[in-house]
Write a structure and sequence with these properties.
The complex is a heterodimer of chains A (964) and B (182). Chain A has 964 residues and is an alpha+beta fold. Chain A has 24 helices and 49 strands. In chain A, helix 6 links the parallel strand 9 and strand 10. Chain A is elongated. Chain A starts with 17 loop residues before the first strand and ends in a 14-residue tail after the last strand. Chain B has one domain: Gyrase A, domain 2 (2-Layer Sandwich), CATH 3.30.1360.120. Classes of the chains: A alpha+beta (964), B alpha+beta (182).
Chain lengths: 964, 182
Amino acid sequence: MSGFRATSGGRFDRARRVSFTFDGVAYLGHPGDTLASALMANGVSLVGRSFKYHRPRGVLAAGAEEPNALVTVDRGPGRITPNCRATEVELFEGLVARSQNRFPSLGFDLGAINSMLKPLFPAGFYYKTFMGPAINGKAKFWNRLFEPLIRRAAGLGAAPTEPDPDAYASLFAHCEVLVVGSGEAGLRAALSASENPAVRVILCEMDHDFGGWLLADPTGARFRDEAIATLRTRPNVRLLSRTQCFGLFLQGFVGLVERVTDHLADPAIDAPRERLWQVRAGRIVIATGAIERPLVFPDNDRPGVMLSSAAHILQGRYGVLPGRAIVVATATDAAYRTAFALADGGARIEAILDRRDHAGERVRAEAEARGIRVETGLTLLGTTGKKHVTGVSYAPMQNQDLRGPSQVIACDTLLVSGGFTPTLHLLSQARGSLRWDEPLSAFVPDKVPENINIAGLASGDFPPELRGAALGLLPGNDDKSALAFVDFQNDVTARDIRLATREGFRSIEHVKRYTTTGMATDQGKTSNINALSIAAESLSQSLPKTGHTTFRMPYVPVTFGTLAGAYRAELFDPIRRTPMHDLAEKRGAVFEDIGLWKRAHAFPRAGESVKAAVQRETRTVREHVGIFDASTLGKIEVTGRDAAAFLDRIYANPVANLAPGRCRYALMLNEAGFLIEDGIVARLSDQRFHITTTTGGVGKVLHLLEDYRQTEFIDLDCFLAPVTEHWAVIAVQGPKAREVIAPLIEGINVAADAMPHMTIREGRLTGVPCRLMRASFTGERGFEVNVPADFGFFAMEALLARAEGLGGGLYGLEAMHILRAEKGYIIIGQETDGTVTPHDLGLGWAMGKAPRDFIGKRGLARPDLLAKGRKQLVGLLPDDPAVVLEEGAQIILQHEPSTGIAAQGHVTSAYFSPNLGRGFALAMLKDGRNRMGEVVTIPMPGERVLARIVSPVFLDPEGRALHG
Amino acid sequence: MADLMLTPRNAWADLTVAEIPGATLKPSPTRHRVLFQARERELETRMKAAGMAAPPAILRARMMDDVALLRPGPDEWLIVSEAEISPKWHEIAGPGAIEISHGYAGIEWCGPRVMLALSAGCPLDLHESAFPVGMASRTLYGKSEMLLWRQDHARFHMEVARSYLSAILAFFGETARHLPQS
């Protein structure tokens, strides 16, 4: 034996060595080791400090359930991962790991003073103590002083500060059977399911090797090796190691995360760090085994105290002995087996201390044969030692009373076994239910969804030696100052749980939140049953009546990187560009994101600010002509015998009476009568319509129309399709608009009388098909040129060349916004917010007078929509023409408002207009149309602005510029 | 000015073929697309009258003469073609048909690893037992909507809305590097 490593046994690469550092000290281990096994082989037992009291802690468990040995693994800048369980971190050459939650060092931690002040730190301590003082009703001390300090002292590791340079992959997969866990039960399930080659099987295992318990058991190794070999030959089987099943969702949808490169010293440059598997499984077999519980007694958390099963795995799998002089404290026969295995491995078993009055016949006989001292019918009273256990004290019990003086046995390791808990987090996530099994002293599956099977230990099918339990705080330990830990990760003691029940928390969910037991990344893996048991006892009720808390996803932490996958930076969302995007870019466009689209905000020239460019573009349109890329505008084509009747029901405006070749500005309401969308309805022919929607609204409108077409208006024969991207749209707006297009258009008479405002014609633009719409969102004479998208770029180039020859130019989205606001044209989502009716906007005229039915008509008749005092669209002119109000600012009628006065409206759009030579705004104001000429107050940051209420149409109210 | 003829610039302009060992994405030569609605029975009659075979079943596609006829919905049909769609097909599509040629781009996916590459972004089960040759369905690739048609064991045709093409190529470029071996 060198250090604590036995000379034989284990399943690791004994021939090769790898070097690693822990807290800056270099050690050697072997490929196949975990950080925990390698540290223990090197005799390192102090691996962390506890969350609240900064108590020294060692390795308690063997896998994902490890609550103590949380370390930071440092793979370089941006690759620092806190809170890795040392029992899961695979060793590789050059691994750099650090302990956490200590200052200045693990051995000497100033925070450990909390341990001496422990009477001050009961559950709820922070809530109670750091309440005040409050200043102006705000807990300033808490926010600025107490909370940051407490967080620094109590944090679990530190969040990385640099961006994560790693790549994270993602894959969808489908299978008939997914097996979670590759212990004996999981292997058997996978073998039997995959016998049929048509059944696709995925077997996932969170460990780096398959086999579960079999890996630690020489007698199980042969079955394990043969099973894996067989599964590997089957093409219908996918074996995923290092893969955690973290979430079970509806209809067999399962989230797996595979660790791809974290265990490699030198991963390929292109290799992802982790891979998310989104699996749709016909059937899910949960074969996740069971987790051993610690015993709850004072000072049960010293380094050197370890779960018996963990020691068994340490020895069987890694050939490492946890110590040399071992005491085993147990309530099960399983720990006897551990003791025998460790004795075979060369450790001295000082004693087996059995909580029970009688151990199993066979293990007792074997202990006797081996000459191991066995004490039964006792309780544990504490441990001695400081940074490592040096002894354990116990006393014999009769019923619930001590029946003799306490005794101490010296040891360097105490193994504990308080019984086993089936691992049913996934069942809980899948909305299965659990039932308390009294003989087993465990929650076992009760109602299991029909697509799920539970196999092996997880099902509660325990072999006799795993039965038996010591629940809650061991008797004889009522000293209130003692710390008997229940939840090691969250530093929750038996005392805390009793306190919570004394303070009136009766629901186990409340006890959990008050004490933090079973919270956070640990999710109560080792602590839940003990905590429940203590709560039940304090409440003098049965454990099943106390119930259990809900296990939250994920089973162990999942990186944000894995959840984000490829969806970050440029790939976060698809970036949509119009066919003319490159032209805009060439002309110096500054883009803004509108939904997924990149749209040109403005076209600043060399040396020109964006603001100045917007003002220039706005003037250009009013004085000459502007060219605008309107391709993102939603477009839907509606055809069929009843297309007109269909749209007539959809829109608040009458559509059926629209003549072919004509357009109409139309409003779409929801059933409650509120305006949700606007656009132009253009009738191309008797049975064909071209309708436009807002850029962001087309998807919603399309679904709405399809919904009504398929489910409500099934008497109507019509068809619709999105054509947004088939047509590129170039808006030509301004007094010279006709001059720009006329020479390029063929087959359409664009003269004022032949093609008046709000008409549509089909013809050609320099040889390519074109739908030409006479429409305006600027208040100027305007055309919207629709050409098939492949021609959009060159059509816009041709139109721009014409426009520039006439003193015009490109304009962007911001200029468009100013131009439309000057005319009082609304934008859905800006002037409207889902509570605005056409009447509120002064658009009641659009609905016509003829009696007809349409979506929202009944809603509009509701008394509250007809009542006086609704907010109405108005214009605002600040007294100071240089002021531009803030959009969203509140409007108050009083000029010297006192505190608590309610706002009467809000500003919806505000700009500086070069055409008006001043700032102006649109607003929604209660009873606004009756308040024309009044002056209102708008509170703005640092000042109050006075503004006069005016008509929302600031320019050309007669609409002369539109026509002609 | 009428002599000025506009040059087409399709969705693939400035975009290039994307490739990893075992999977290639390239522009499909399909240029023409017409969407129409018809009851199956009614369409079958029209096609029979024109001397053609029966239309495909729901979520299936069929090559017919020089065009492909896809059926993405119960009464929704899509004609996709390299050449200009002939008057015969316009007749079959009927007066309510809607032209969407320029609104979409076609991508050809081929190679032994395309199924795996698609699985990085497509939630459908693409195993041949679930998505056989000839099947065509609207679905997702990454966050982009698309229509996927399996033309052969290792060959797919993808129809995507024009502005999503670059996002799809970029998503492939990022995810295809990270595929598992099988």
